[in-house]
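Notes to self after the Tuesday call (sharing in case useful).
The group wants a holo model before anyone commits to mutagenesis around the pocket. I volunteered. Ligand is glutathione. Logging inputs and output together so the record is complete.
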Amino acid sequence: MAAYTFFTHPMSRGQIARWALHETGVDYEQVIVDWANKPAALMAANPMGKVPTVIHHSETGDRVITECAAICAYLAEANPEAELLPSDAELADYLRWMFFAAGPVEQAILGKSMGWDVPKEREGMVGFGSFDRTLGTLRDHFAGSDFVCGERFTMADVYVGSQVDWGLTFGSIPPEPELVAYADRIQARPHYKAAKGIDNDLIEEMRK
Ligand SMILES: N[C@@H](CCC(=O)N[C@@H](CS)C(=O)NCC(=O)O)C(=O)O
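Result:
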């Protein structure tokens, strides 16, 4: 049995978790989810019925992990030999930007694509303030840093990089030079290419 069971769909956020699985080099068995007929094992593990959902068959029992950012963080913690964890000096940036991407960035992008307008006088109530403020803050970070934690790639780049990469691909974030350059660095990762290749092949198969 593989160490991890991975419920996914190639056209989904499952792409983020697949990349994280490849970066850590773990053995996993994928289950491609049919949206109209979700497997009972997925629903038992994650009543939200969402992908990605990962089950780690650890030596001490099965561990269910959901939410892309948490999956990335978990895989880095469970597989320290992959050297994707932050050093003490990198920890603040690692946590700060991973949570920033999972919260404010995701909400800002989603709100814009849904056409939800935040009235100026209520920006103080929403965690992302405004789309421009959130994306500008992220852009400014990458004006001075190659990766989330400076010059070294960590697991935070799998999650933050995926948000940036996805947003640029679908035009939901502006093609600011700092973000485009960051996405270029992310896309150069061999494990990014390997994981994307698998999902792209699955998408091709589904289109036949
Ligand atoms: N907060 C979750 C979101 C997961 C999510 O919304 N996944 C979508 C695909 S991208 C899904 O499973 N949709 C199927 C459904 O909701 O039935 C995460 O970050 O992993």
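Two things stood out.
Residues 53 and 66 are 5 Å apart (CA to CA).
The radius of gyration is 17 Å.
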